[in-house]
Structure of DNA polymerase III subunit delta:
Amino acid sequence: MTVWDDLTGQAEAIAVFRAAAERPGVAVAMADSSASDGQVLTAPPATDDHSSMTHAWLITGPPGSGRSNLAFAFATALLGPGTPEGDEAARRQVEARTHPDLILLSTEGVIIKMDAVKEAVARSQYSPSVGRYRVVVVEDADRMVERTSNVLLKALEEPPERTVWILCAPSEADLLPTIRSRVRTVRLRVPSVDDVAELLQRRDGVDAVTAERAARHAQSHIGMAHRLATSPEAETRREETLRAALGIRSVSAAVNGAARMIAIAGDDAKAITLERDAEERKAVLRSLGLDEGQAIPARLRGQLKDMEDDQKRRATRSLRDGIDRILVDLASLYRDILMVQLGREQAVINRELAREVTDAAAAATPSATLATMDAITLARQRIEANVAPALALEAMLVSAIRR
């Protein structure tokens, strides 16, 4: 088993990283002796030699394409003893996020905080302790505000010789131009439904029918496909959302539908975070030498409060992600309606709702369906801009009224 086995649909990107891990030679910043102000310049990353190695990488691709999985696979190959297949001991440590030369910069809140970036930058200056490199993986690099990104930029401009940065973001446009100029970009594509279904069968032991349905409903989003395939409740909540949208016949129904969708997103978020929160609390209490239900001494309450604050931030992001996922599912529904209106029934995603989709297609024109799809996009943008989700969903569902 190699570190690349659990990746799917990204053969070209895997080939780039395997070659880079096999033939190291980090491109570090070089001081320009002709610069009077002592400016540090960085040689531009190679773009045509797939076997080259550089100090900073950017993995881009749509949500669910496997950016983080590929980043950690590459990190494992770099932290191992020099084989592109990855060392088993290093793989276990990376999976547990306990490797001494691995630095993870991520957030379960809305943005990555500046203090976290400063800490990662400071740690990146040390030489590796057991591996060939010290590797810094930045998940969701697009979640940094500009002043935070500038802290990261300084580290990329003056990198230590044996430190490698691996950034992940949906697209290059989500990062500052100055950061984009100092990284080598590897772009991922959306894996096919068949690729994702095959991965679910091989990795998670899911039967072929369930795997295909989950991959299709998730529109090849690997993480969401895994959840739909392994959680019947998640699949049920998704179907309820689509049926609620198909039943909108009035403004009052749109308002009630929006409230129900937010409740569904909340239930989904709780299902994701509740078990993890409980495990975290047990681990913290155990580390403090306390039993569940035991009175917490005043001097230790601050540590528990910090944990609870982190859990609240994670719950907020999980709810926002859940609402966004509902909007993505609704976009797939109205795409199906449009496909039926244009005579492309074979391209329908939500085949289990074929009769309802056909009825909805007959009740509207293609232009009206396109207007609803535009409203869904606008609702996502509004929520991203901190408009109240209920108002954004209500406005979107009003455009979906069919009589």
About this structure: The radius of gyration is 24 Å.
